[in-house]
Amino acid sequence: MAVQLNRGSSLAPFNLTPMIDCVFLLLIFFLVAAELSEEEREMKVLLPEASEAMPLTSKPREVFINIDQAGRYYVTGELLALEDLAAVLKTAWTNNPGRASVVIRADRRCQWQFVVGAMDACNKARIRDYRVTTLEGQPG
Asked: What's the rounded Cα separation, in Å, for the pair 84 and 73?
């Protein structure tokens, strides 16, 4: 008894449509994720200059506090009062105890008291890893 094999269907071309769909979905996902991660650094503030400024390297779970010229606080693009900022920082510390990090981006034209207020809110929330960003400038 001979076994008959249908060799014509084994050499048929592969259907690449599902694989192409997956590649396009992954591409869209990574493009959207990249846009959202840059949202924090897009606010238009004029940073002060410092001769020893280092490039900003992001760590995971950083909270960006943007302070505009009028002294208003923004976190994730949302306007917050100082009390609300303190609540957000406490939540960040609760979610990442000991590892929460804050980057304060203040407009150079704002009063220093607003930056000190953000630092004080960090201290009250027990976040010790906070820093103020500057632009690299020319020495003296």
From this structure: 10
DSSP H helices, 68-126, are 82-95, 112-124
CB of 45 within 8 A of CB of 105? yes
Write down the pTM of the prediction: 0.58
Taking the C-alpha atoms of residue 119 and residue 130, their distance in angstroms, rounded to an integer, is 8
Would you call 21 helix, strand, or coil by DSSP?
Answer: helix
Residue 123: phi, psi to the nearest 5?
A: -65, -40
Q: Helix, strand, coil proportions of the chain in percent (round to 5)?
A: 40, 20, 40
Residue with tokens 């995971």: 60
Q: What average pLDDT does range 38-61 have in this prediction? A: 66
What does the pLDDT read at residue 120? 94
Confidence bin at 86 (pLDDT 50/70/90): very high
